[in-house]
Amino acid sequence: MKQVKVLGPGCKRCETTAEMVKAEAIKLGIAVHVEKVTDYAEIARYGIVSTPGIVIDGKVVHAGGLPKAEDLARWLAA
Amino acid sequence: MATVELPASPGERTTRTALWLAGTAAFLVVWVLAYGQLVPVSDWAVAQLPLDPGSHAHEAVRFFLYDTPKVMLLLTLVVFGMGIVRSFFSPERTRALLAGRREGMGNVAAATLGIVTPFCSCSAVPLFLGFVSAGVPLGVTFSFLIAAPMVNEVALGLLLATFGWTVAATYLGFGLGVAIVSGWVIGRLRLEGWLEPWVRELRAGAVDLPVEVLKVVDRIRAGIDAVREIVGRVWMWIIAGIAVGAFIHGYVPADLLAGVMGKDAWWSVPAAVALGIPMYSNAAGIIPVVEALIGKGAALGTVLAFMMSVIALSLPEMIILRKVLSVRLIAVFVGVVGLGILAVGFLFNLLFA
């Protein structure tokens, strides 16, 4: 089970990003647990400046703007 | 099992890049041709309507039919260009460039990077925290946060469309000036103690983002995405603004506003700044109205001060920033930036008299 965290204060793009992660995981048949992190201090501790950010199993893979579907597939499959 | 696309062969990739470049060039040619036909096409369209030349309705419709395509064309071009420029920058990289910078040059760098770094106001708080906790000085952070929303592609594109490049360039210059000076002043005031306590203690984690290698095609795509997103968001406001502007243009008597918003009414600049604070960010809708107002005798400086105030000092943004800044610090921010905008308003009225 992959632990995915979507970092963002709860704007529309963060919601969309979380949905995209779930959809991509289902498509690839990868079990994921998606958690939304909205606390500013926690977001900052991950070291990102722009949101939404994506953390997979503790590693920051993306920051700022919507991710591309093909990148999501690559990160989830890694 | 994930299916991974096989990397395209170098030959295929070159062909694809060439196609994208050719497409972009074709788009630019069509753009130039369309721009050149604005006057004849809008004149022709108005002539098809049963309106008396010289009547109020004729003037209003002509203004609307000429301004709408012109504004849209210029806005699309500026947003597309800015989208490409921004693909070379990211907030994370900008922070790395600014961390540990001294004030002074740091403020100049921060304000300039504020224009070209992709920025969304919903990211303002994470950005502020990320900068301050990584050792970017408070005043330098403010220079970035003031310039980023104020000198944006929508404001620049619309100013270019309605007032020409001298006004757009002057807005850019003065916007940078306000951001640099305000940030520097805030830095000099040594207000780090006024941050919320948890913010002062926060230390950013080190981030090691995978480096994205963007190709020419990706950058062109970034430009197209920017057009789709930004023009898609603001076009309704622009058309609404042009419609109101067209009504003012056709029906409001000339010079009606000279007494209220003209450059001889000194109090109009502070009034415009104060009025701009509770309004939020629809520069898109405001500029066409402003164009019509100026046609009726309003002074350019007054009107630009209003615009800067609407964009740079917005109540909703202050409410968001309250989570990390004390009320005193927000008050200083509003005071310093407000004074800067006032100065710009008066100076513009003097320069473009």
From TrEMBL, chain A:
Catalytic residues, chain numbering: 11, 14
Keyword check for Signal: no
Annotated S-S bridges: 11-14
Ranges where the Thioredoxin-like fold domain occurs: 3-76
Taxonomic superkingdom: Bacteria
Any Pfam family hit: Thioredoxin_3
Coiled coil residues, start to end: none
Keywords: Disulfide bond, Redox-active center
Family matches, as PANTHER family: THIOREDOXIN (PTHR36450)
Protein's UniProt name: Glutaredoxin
From TrEMBL, chain B:
Topology with respect to the bilayer: Multi-pass membrane protein
Subcellular localization(s) per the UniProt record: Cell membrane
Keywords: Cell membrane, Membrane, Transmembrane, Transmembrane helix
Transmembrane region(s): 18-38, 71-89, 138-161, 168-187, 234-254, 266-287, 293-315, 327-352
One Pfam assignment: ArsP_1
Domain of life: Bacteria
GO CC field: plasma membrane
Keyword Transmembrane helix: yes
Family note: Belongs to the UPF0718 family.
Name of the protein in question: Membrane protein
